[in-house]
Specification:
Elements: E1 9-11, E2 32-36, H1 40-51, E3 55-59, H2 65-73, E4 79-83, E5 98-101, H3 106-119, E6 122-125, E7 138-142, E8 145-149, H4 156-169, H5 174-191, H6 196-208, H7 218-232, E9 239-244, H8 255-262, E10 266-269, H9 275-278, E11 286-289, H10 301-313, E12 317-322, H11 332-341, E13 346-349, H12 354-362, E14 374-379, H13 393-396, E15 401-406, H14 412-421, E16 429-434, E17 442-447, E18 463-467, H15 472-489
Helix pairs in contact: 1-2, 5-6, 5-7, 6-7, 10-11
Length: 490
């Protein structure tokens, strides 16, 4: 009996998890800040505060070489004045907006915090979180784009590792694009209406910001684009991005996929998309499950198409989030055609398909030149749900072809029978991949003849079937273990 269609179902909005600390960005330009202490740690913090535009007064009876060198070369942004004397209560007059101390011991740390509290000043004591109102984190500087990273003092080295990762992802040219954005912001706000028009412009600029640095003429080109958006109403037009969510792990997403998720108004996602991937989406985005999964109640494809078109006509930015790659058995062709008929702009962001992810999990090359000269990706059933008799079964049975079968759980015995009938040896290696890329991932090596046995395919998790000589090592390892166990039991 065919499953009854299921309507799209809106998922609950993402809830903000508990924050160990609230990240805030403080305006310090032209404001007085005091630093007590003259060691290397105090010098680094003084330079950081001055770089943010503060007028930094340093009090140190015996400034270290690092502090003296900093004063000698000067700072960029604010100002730095060194007072060769210990700090005392009078340094809090006139009242600073922030006070920092590189204390020599618990006693000095306690005294400084009490003095700061009495003056009503936010304070930090270096490496003593119990005396701090605020803490410094690792910083990625693409000013005016500034990223702060905190581990709540638990693992500063981890914070630095995260910073290095982000540094590698963000091109230095991002700073120039940020500066350009700051220059044009007022003009853009004058020319474009709040909402869809402005957002269309800023999304366009944000995409370019991850490419080469702005060249001569780019600012004028952006203003021309703003004019076109204002005159044509393009900003009010919705659009759809078909995004490949990959096999499950969030860190296998492309950067472009993450950017699409973070600019979406609505996300239409399939059952197989992991919660970790949805967590990367813009928090304000609506999440709607449009589950399509064999053997379960599913939304009709026509309903999904109609929903995308309806949302696009409302000016929404829609991400159609599909497991694996949208263009590999994801019915993307039908969705693209439906959108194009209604003149809805559509873009595709590829993802890692399950067959490739399974090969990676096994450490197997699907095109190892000693075992395979081609790969074929096929579906395990046709439109009727039965074995597809129109497939090139003779070609699929080529011993030098690696075959990856999607959605073949119910037809696996028929697939094996046809391949064997066409001449593929019964001992050909096979690997069953369940829930590839997810927490319940399972890889089961077999031989082709094993698929002829009823019940060999587990019911429940999605399965991908790999057939071919490239899987020989994986299957042989299992065969050897079986022999060892048999010998050991005698």
């Amino acid at each position: 009996m065919a499953p009854s269609p299921r309507s799209p179902r809106e998922a609950a909005p993402a809830r903000m998890g508990r924050l160990a600390k609230l990240p805030l960005f403080m305006e310090l330009t032209g404001k007085r800040v005091i630093v007590a202490g003259g060691g290397a740690g105090a010098a680094w913090k003084a330079e950081l505060l001055a770089a943010a535009g503060a007028d930094v007064a340093v009090y140190a009876a015996e400034p270290a070489e690092e502090m003296e060198a900093l004063v000698a070369r000067g700072v960029e942004g604010g100002s730095l004045t060194l007072h060769v004397r210990p700090w005392a209560l009078d340094v809090f007059e006139p009242r600073p907006v922030f006070a920092l101390c590189d204390a020599e011991g618990e006693g000095e740390a306690w005294a400084f915090r009490c003095a700061a509290k009495a003056a009503g000043v936010v304070c930090n004591v270096v490496d003593k979180p119990e005396f701090c109102d605020v803490q410094f984190g690792s910083i990625v500087n693409r000013s005016p784009v500034v990223i702060g990273i905190s581990t709540d003092g638990a693992a500063p080295v981890l914070g630095q590792a995260i910073r290095r990762k982000i540094e590698a992802l963000l091109p230095p040219s991002l700073a120039a694009w940020g500066a350009l954005a700051k220059r044009v912001r007022e003009t853009v706000n004058e020319r474009l209406k709040p909402g869809a028009e402005r957002r269309s412009f800023w999304d366009h600029l944000a995409e370019r910001a991850f490419g080469p640095a702005p060249a001569e003429g780019d600012e004028r080109a952006l203003m021309d684009a703003a004019g076109r958006i204002a005159s044509s109403g393009d900003g009010a037009r919705g659009r759809v991005v078909l995004v490949g969510a990959g096999p499950g792990e969030a860190d296998l997403l492309t950067l472009k996929a993450v950017r699409a998720l973070q600019s979406a108004d609505v996300i239409l996602f399939d059952d197989l998309v992991s919660p970790d991937i949805l967590e990367l989406a813009r928090r304000e985005a609506k999440r709607v499950m449009v589950g399509k999964r064999g053997g379960r109640d599913s939304c009709r494809q026509e309903d999904i198409n109609d929903l995308m078109i309806s949302l696009a006509r409302q000016g929404r930015r829609i991400v159609r989030l599909k497991a694996g790659d949208p263009m590999v058995f994801g019915r993307a062709g039908e969705e693209i055609a439906a959108l194009q008929r209604e003149n809805v702009p559509v873009e595709v962001v590829p993802g890692i398909t399950a067959g490739i992810a399974m090969a990676s999990a096994l450490g197997v090359s699907l095109t190892h030149r000693d075992a395979s000269h081609s790969i074929r990706f096929v579906t395990g059933h046709g439109k009727s749900g039965e074995l597809d008799e129109h497939l090139d079964w003779k070609g699929l049975a080529d011993p030098e072809t690696t075959l990856i079968v999607y959605m073949g759980g119910r037809t696996s015995s028929g697939i094996a029978e046809r391949l064997i009938r066409e001449g593929l040896p019964e001992a050909t290696p096979v690997v069953l991949g369940y829930a590839i890329g997810q927490s319940g991932q399972k890889l089961v090596p077999l031989r082709l003849r094993d698929l002829l046995t009823d019940g060999v395919i587990e019911k429940g998790p999605t399965v991908v079937i790999g057939v071919g000589r490239v899987f020989e090592d994986a299957v042989a390892a299992v065969d050897r273990n079986v022999v060892k166990r048999a010998v050991g039991s005698e």
